[in-house]
Amino acid sequence: MRSFESGVQGKRVRVFLSDLKPRLIVVDAAFESPVRAVARNMNIEIAELRSIEQDEAGAFSFGPDASVLVSDAPMGCAKASDVALVLHTSGTTSRPKIVPLTHENLCASAANIAQSLALSPADRCLNIIPLFHIHGLVGALLPSLSAGASVVRATGYDATRFFDWLAEFEPT
């Protein structure tokens, strides 16, 4: 059996990481991400994110290797012009490109989509798109949150469960 790293997906991850040149990869400690093997092979530091289950949603800590996150840089709030995330395009017209998106870009997109959809705090989004996909993050999650709406994050698209989710969560 071939390892993940030598397969097609492993090669894609290697291309992405080679393009992005990250110094650190943050992975969820609860999941064995195949990205770990590629990152280790490329000598990229790995930090494990651990959910704090007894705390509110989204609370986390870093595993014992958190020292790789310590920096001499001053702590502070992000500025609107700071890069919030780096989008690696799909490459449908040529080789994938790296597109830095600032906090201001993301907030403007979220506000525009929320306004276009007339979202309000009374709305609920059923998000079936992965958050690593730009539409899952910028098309569904951020506009809903910017409008004060709630978001139900499905574990992924499942045609056999989709209509049950509609009945259970009653998204608007």
Task: Tell me what the structure shows.
The model has no long low-confidence stretch (mean pLDDT 84). The longest helix has 14 residues, at 103-116. The strands form 3 sheets. A 3-stranded mixed beta sheet has the order 1-2-3. It has a two-stranded antiparallel ribbon with strand order 4-5. The chain has 2 domains: 1-70, no CATH class; 77-172, Rossmann fold, CATH 3.40.50.980. With 172 residues, the chain is α/β, with parallel strands linked by helices. It contains 5 helices and 7 strands; from the N terminus they run αβαββββαβαβα. Strand 2 (45-51) and strand 3 form a beta hairpin. The termini are far apart. Helices cover 32% and strands 20% of the residues.
Global outline: globular
Mean pLDDT level: 84
Give the ordered list of helices and strands. HEHEEEEHEHEH
CATH architecture of the largest domain: 3-Layer(aba) Sandwich
Number of domains: 2
User: Can you give the helix content as a percent range?
Assistant: 25-40%
Oligomer: single chain
- CATH T-level topology of the largest domain: Rossmann fold
Strand order of the largest sheet: 1-2-3
User: How big a fraction of the residues is strand?
Assistant: 15-25%
| Level-1 CATH class name of the largest domain | Alpha Beta
Structural class: alpha/beta
Task: State Rg.
Answer: 18 Å
- Extract low-pLDDT stretches: none
The largest sheet, given as strand count, sense and whether it forms a barrel, is: 3 strands, mixed
- How far the N terminus sits from the C terminus, by CA atoms, comes to 45 Å
Number of helices: 5
Care to count the β-strands? 7
